[in-house]
Amino acid sequence: MTGETAGDIGGTLGVLERLVAFNTVSARPNADIVAYIEGYLRDRGARITRIAQGDKAGLYAEIGPPGPGVLLSGHTDVVPVAGQDWTRAPFALTRDGNRLYGRGTTDMKGYLASMLAAADMASRGPLAAPLKLVFSYDEEVGCVGIQQMMDRLAPLMGTPRAAFVGEPTEMQVAIGHKGKAAFTAICRGQSGHSSLAPDFVNALHLAADFVTALRDVQDAQRQGGARDPAYDIPYSTVHVGTLEGGRALNVVPDRADLNFEIRHLPGDDPAALLARIRLAADTVSARYRTQWDGARIEIDEINGYPGLDIAPEDPVVATALALAETNQTTKMAFGTEAGVFAAQGIPTVICGPGSMAGQGHKPDEYITLDQIAACNRMMARIVADLRGG
Fold it and tell me: pTM of the entire structure?
């Protein structure tokens, strides 16, 4: 990529081809892509720290003098392709006109390639302030990796004056998204022969009543909860994703496992919502304990991440709008790592190439050349700003 400019994206496309070729579905190790990125950055004089967790690793890199600087962040993992009807090889970059196909082109290896383009630009002249880069893992399974990295990452990155998380926004500046908390509810009943089913507490019946209770909590949020009209769904939501229980038709099930999530507005307290849900679970269980005192619903948290809510008048928003050359801000339906950075006191926005609604997580995922070019132009402006201090 040496010598590439913002208007010449050939080097970026070569990097994107390499990145897409790494099968980094979240369930797999990511050592190969991390080694490639690490080597690329080392060749450009970056100071690099690898942050490992089992068979996964993230990277922190810095180019330029010490100081607050600007942070760019993206994740290396992608969603699975299994069960999707791809007409092209998902882990090979193919071009058709203005479109570049491959898993992760939009979410979010296109942005990673532009991050590396920024590193290349930054390496070709003195900076007055540093360019900081974070590459994470396991974002697609609940922003797990960045939270595991943060203890080591926080003292390395300090407090940049601005952070850009490059999830696909079609290069608009996103200033908010909901937080998420995911849970498993274990419903405990009694096993017995189905010919005597009424004599036993059926764990699936317990679970079904709990689903109804969760829907009641959701209805209360829809009717009277906090609202933010900037979101497509302007209130906090409660969603049931899976329900499993029972081993055979002639056996009353003694256990049913239910997975549910809360996607909450940044202004809503997820702990308060969970307290209402626990109360509902106890109310449901109490009805069955009149028959058997062991009936209960246990709720365990699986994972979660904070929401993002940046005030439109925050200086980072004006900075981001100028660097992205747009006058539009938006809020996003899906979660990102941006809330994790904001929780560290870093002014953070989301801005990246591609459309999540249009291409993200879909078969034949693609990104357009003009989106890559627009992102590279933003990177060139960021580097120019860092040269001026």
Answer: 0.92
